[in-house]
Amino acid sequence: MTQKPYVSTALPTPEIDELLSRHTLPEGAIAGWFDYPSLVPILGRISKEQFKKNITDFEKILAPFFGLKSFFGSLNKMDFSVGCSKGCHTCLAKAPPPARMFSTESLIRGFRNPQILQMLDPYHLRIGNTAEPTDQSDFLEVIKFILIQTEFLDEQAKKQEKRHRVNVYTNYRPNSEEILESLIELARDNDRFELNISLPVNKTDSVNESFALFAAAHEDTFFYNELQAYMGYQTKIKNLYVFNVREGNSIFPIGRRLSPEILESKKKLGGVLPINRVEDYELRGMVDLLVNPDALWMMVYSTAHHSSTLRSYTPLNLENTQVLTLLPWIKFYFFDTFPPNWPGGQGERRDGELAQQMKVSDCNPFQKVDIVY
To answer: How far does the chain reach from its first CA to its final CA, in angstroms?
Structure first.
């Protein structure tokens, strides 16, 4: 089994450089900066049997942070595995093939642990960020268990006229239709479960064509209005969504993607965004957390000058946590809650004029994206 060397694949943003210039950390406290959250990615695919053997303990990854008030209510993103089996030609995360996953037993045990439940965001948990969640051996069993174990968060949220939701992001493939049907039924039965189905932008359109047949066979769930084709596939379940970037959306030219020539040939594309957007500077240097089988990661929002995926990741540990948590928590237009004890507080989105000035003054070269065809 060949492994990549342990080297950084992204850069810290200027906000991180400025922070580290004011605080001394022990040597080796920062393991590196990565455009994908994996410490030891595997070159090439491994067998399904080997993948199932490469298991990590969910509880052990989070154990060093138990009881730290900074992390109470902070965890809203997780991946069950490192890497993704789908191999989409267009992948914002630039995910490598699957390499390691959390064991089912450790996930069940972890979501019984009061200290992990204390770390969860009180309103939402997204599963499927940089990896395909259904790659985990007992995915459906685990999701149902998480929904049960987080019911107390929903009860607390209801007191504020809100809800706690578990969001799953999965990539459609014809050979995954059986589990997809089970997930659709779960969404139909449980309004706390939100299912997001992504369709790829690949060199050929065979996957998209297969989904069209799948949708046509499930008229009780999906519909497509030719007069509103820009909206793509719509659903009859309020907590089920289909994201088809070719239908009225725009492609981010980051991570892994097709060549401009092939993208232009995709007639239904909503367009290709510029590689260096003002919007990226509005959020640069703000942070979020992600846990996967390699680490609890600090995810820093960056630009194309610092990371090919617009995210610079570094694994958290007890030596760097006290300093890195001084970075401000991300603030979105649509969701602005943040951990109540986060030392850096919540960041303020910069106005467009300031962000434009930052963009113009950024002299670093762009980080290299992977063009597959």
So the answer is: 26
